[in-house]
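I would like you to help me understand the sequence and structure tokens below and explain how sequence relates to structure.
___
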Amino acid sequence: MGRNTSVGYLPDMVHAASCIKELLQLYLSPASEIALGNLLKNKYGINGRNTVRMTRHTLIVLKLIAYSAPDTFEITESGKRWLENGCSEEELFFIYQKNVMFFGEILYALNKSAKTHLELLSFSKECGTPIDKHAFTRRMQVLKSLGYATMPKKGYYCITQPGKELLKKIPTKDLEIASIYESADICGTEDEDVDFVLSTDKELCILPRGISVLINVDQGLLIRAAWKARKEQEGFTELMNRLLKAYISSSN
């Protein structure tokens, strides 16, 4: 998918959509670093070459601007479409989701229950896209700005109702390993452990009570998870069918 680890920097993270809209309007014609620096100084009172470069890098990561000439960038077709479509928060979310690792996955995790930043950082590792606290904070700033996540209680993040509705529109295959969690109904371990190992030779090995199953998949990743083991063979067969369907769907 070519997703980037960095979510980037915006001079106004609280109003991400309107901020990006203003920045993109500058690039409707090719613009230099000096022009961007003048905009940041006049509009946001921000000085500093590094800040200018970080802001520009964010638009590059989101594929909203691209290099056009020495020290000059201009808006991409993707950027033009977003402006022409009314600069919606939903469309901007999908631009982030397409280009930034561990973004929609945050909403997926919060849809299960409210979580602390430590729990979400741990989940990022399980997804194979580990991020640090700083990178996580930037992601949450954007998600809160777009109205899809909130922090009603200090230290705990929650998904909003618009976030729940939006999550239904994200294809499972675009959520890294989310399909594993969705299909396996993972919760705290109380009985036997089940290991999910997605190995480098592109095979998913599911090992409950000594039973092995191999499924071809698209990416190599090691995942270990625990779930409340089903005691009945019937329940296990049902679970395996659901996992197979999820992986067939996610690899198409």
About this structure: The first strand starts at residue 31 and ends at 32. The chain is about 50% helix and 15% strand.
